[in-house]
Specification:
The protein has about 100 residues and is an all-alpha fold. It has one domain. It has five helices and no strands. It is globular and about 35 Å long. The two termini are about 25 Å apart.
């Protein structure tokens, strides 16, 4: 998946989170940083039921699928996506977000 497509999905998710939950995100960072993306996905899932809409749930799933596709993509992906893949694997092992949301 091209990085521009991931950025477009991140922008759509940003708008939905802001509208439904009042949460403001950094779209470019969301599309580039695996830890931040995982935390926003977790936050979006936490909102399911309380403040979530079917559209937010759908775009959260799309965003997660896009990240998974980007991480599992071909070996010639950009260094940024390679690093993101490493961070997502580390996060899966640690199961803890370290730091604060930007």
């Amino acid at each position: 998946m091209p990085e521009s497509e991931l950025l477009a999905i991140a922008a759509h998710l940003h708008v939905l989170l802001r509208r439904n939950c009042g949460r403001v995100t950094d779209t470019e960072w969301l599309a580039a940083n695996a830890e931040y993306a995982a935390e926003i996905i977790r936050f979006s899932r936490e909102q399911e039921g309380a403040r979530s809409t079917p559209e937010l749930v759908d775009w959260t799933h799309r965003f997660e699928a896009a990240w998974n596709a980007a991480l599992a993509g071909p070996a010639e992906r950009s260094p940024l996506m390679q690093r993101a893949g490493e961070l997502m694997r580390q996060r899966a092992e640690n199961r803890k977000y370290v730091g604060t949301l930007r």
